[in-house]
Amino acid sequence: MVLLLPHVLSALAFTALSPLLEEVSAKHLDRNHIQSLRNKAAEKLSKNRLAVVPGGDVIDVKVNAGVKNITFSNPAASAFYVDGATIPDVDWDIGPSWAGLLPISGNANETRELFFWFFPPGPTGANDSLILWTNGGPGCSSLEGMLQEHGPFSWGWGQYKPTVNEHSWTNLSSILYIEHPVGTGYSQGIPNVQDEEDVATQFVGFLQQFLEVFAELKGKKTYLTGESYAGMYVPYIADYIYKKKVPLDLSLQGIWIGDPILGWDVVQEEIPVVDFVHKYEHVFAFNQTFMKYLDEQNKKCNYAGYLDKHLKYPPKGPLPLPGQSVEADPDCDLWTEVYEAALILNPAFNVYRIFDQYPLVWDVLGFPEATESPIYFDRQDVKKAIHAPLNQTWVECANIDVFPNGDASLPPAFTVLPGVIEQSVRSVIMHGLGDYVLIAEGARLVLQNMTWGGKQGFQKAPAPDSFIVEDMGAMGTVQIERKLGYFEVVLSGHMLPQFVPKAAFQSMQWLFGIRQNP
Ligand SMILES: *[C@@H]1O[C@H](CO)[C@@H](O)[C@H](O)[C@H]1NC(C)=O
Ligand SMILES: *[C@@H]1O[C@H](CO)[C@@H](O)[C@H](O)[C@H]1NC(C)=O
Ligand SMILES: *[C@@H]1O[C@H](CO)[C@@H](O)[C@H](O)[C@H]1NC(C)=O
Ligand SMILES: *[C@@H]1O[C@H](CO)[C@@H](O)[C@H](O)[C@H]1NC(C)=O
Ligand SMILES: *[C@@H]1O[C@H](CO)[C@@H](O)[C@H](O)[C@H]1NC(C)=O
Ligand SMILES: *[C@@H]1O[C@H](CO)[C@@H](O)[C@H](O)[C@H]1NC(C)=O
Ligand SMILES: *[C@@H]1O[C@H](CO)[C@@H](O)[C@H](O)[C@H]1NC(C)=O
């Protein structure tokens, strides 16, 4: 039984008589209205305008009608051919592609193999280039990037079925997804990499074998791309290629790394974390007592004011560590404390995108969320379709450490990254502003402490609203100096091509030089 209290009744009566009535009812949104507004907005988001806008920025987009089916003359290639009409659950023909296992060296006794999936360029993709993609982890499969970030078909979080990906990077180029190092995905062999030199040796050793079979790809302009822990892989592999440690018939042009590990954990996670909580204080919604506690700890740990003092354009000199540790001093792991507190109020809190809430959407790859149906790449029919080992259990991120004794390499900002930027035509570092795993201001600090092209850091701060995404408008900032473009994107979590596909695609067009202004 519902009782209407007298003051409610009088309020209703007032509303009924009020001249405001029309305005009030005008805000009543029926289903069709909501959906049509959404659809109209979504059209802009999903449309991939590759064509040249008169007077616009995009130049030199060719249509390669001829690349629909690259043919490879080595008969060995046909064993890897994937019939695009037979990909399970994909109910259109995605066109030809090639997938399978190849060894990491030409030694007759080699038992270690990496899994790959190669896609030729789509109609607008350049035929003289090759994108290499690697996910991070360490131990996470690059097939995640294929299925949920920039492959020609997507099966994203919560999607019932796969859909065409209008922002497929095959619209730019051919692309090769590689599961590595050994221990990742379908790869074969005992994991044994000790450092990034070992990672590069496996990766490039595999590429040599790949190019023997797919020799038509030799000499292509190559772009090495990846995200997260691939912030370690990509610069070290690029350095290995530039130093010509072994012969490799590819012409490396540049790198793209999204939300990458570049420097110390204390810089990319701890120093900026309380500022990040303040910036998003209505998302975290912490109580005042806890906020006060965080502010106090922030001071004690020497993180407070660090950004104000040290994030300068141009930088004033080398950046100091806030304490003794490159991870976190005792009682100064505020990142973990914030994470735990965030989960109390929002058990669905997602480190990969802070805006997520219940209900958690299912994920056909089973990571980060669980899935109730078989994981896509662990299905027998999927494995058959792509020549994957049928007896191997596939998980998106390995349950074992693919570096059995840890990764002995230093973060790349202190070693190879400056040289890689200098030797590349262009390089992109991109960061989502809603990522909690790694925090954008931390990446900024790492870059302001790094010297490349003869100067330390960026000389000018990224200007507000400087990153304009086609059809969408300002979606963050970009600063380009000495061949390095640093992009930050609003509303994006950790996996940029998944969360902001248009923005990521556009940054790739800049990397390729087919867009003058990013
Ligand atoms: C694209 O490249 C492949 C391999 O290099 C070549 O076989 C093919 O003829 C090229 N197609 C076009 C349209 O240039
Ligand atoms: C594409 O090429 C493969 C061999 O490389 C061949 O088996 C297949 O039939 C071709 N598909 C089309 C549509 O021409
Ligand atoms: C495998 O072969 C390579 C050269 O072909 C040799 O250097 C290496 O020792 C061999 N390894 C084993 C385990 O037999
Ligand atoms: C981009 O790639 C997708 C997937 O291959 C394709 O369906 C779409 O037509 C392409 N878009 C453009 C504008 O070429
Ligand atoms: C800045 O770079 C130097 C090496 O060039 C390094 O020793 C120092 O730890 C870095 N500072 C930070 C805060 O990462
Ligand atoms: C305030 O937040 C902290 C951290 O989540 C929690 O431990 C504490 O119980 C909260 N206090 C109140 C009154 O909710
Ligand atoms: C799968 O089968 C291959 C070939 O029969 C074998 O070499 C490999 O060890 C098997 N892998 C697993 C995980 O059982």
From TrEMBL:
<keyword id="KW-0732">Signal</keyword>
<keyword id="KW-0378">Hydrolase</keyword>
<keyword id="KW-0121">Carboxypeptidase</keyword>
<comment type="similarity">
    <text>Belongs to the peptidase S10 family.</text>
</comment>
<feature type="signal peptide">
    <location>
        <begin position="1"/>
        <end position="26"/>
    </location>
</feature>
<dbReference type="InterPro" id="IPR001563">
    <property type="entry name" value="Peptidase_S10"/>
</dbReference>
<dbReference type="InterPro" id="IPR018202">
    <property type="entry name" value="Ser_caboxypep_ser_AS"/>
</dbReference>
<protein>
    <recommendedName>
        <fullName>Carboxypeptidase</fullName>
        <ecNumber>3.4.16.-</ecNumber>
    </recommendedName>
</protein>
<dbReference type="InterPro" id="IPR029058">
    <property type="entry name" value="AB_hydrolase_fold"/>
</dbReference>
<keyword id="KW-0325">Glycoprotein</keyword>
<dbReference type="GO" id="GO:0006508">
    <property type="term" value="P:proteolysis"/>
</dbReference>
<dbReference type="GO" id="GO:0004185">
    <property type="term" value="F:serine-type carboxypeptidase activity"/>
</dbReference>
<dbReference type="Pfam" id="PF00450">
    <property type="entry name" value="Peptidase_S10"/>
</dbReference>
<keyword id="KW-0645">Protease</keyword>
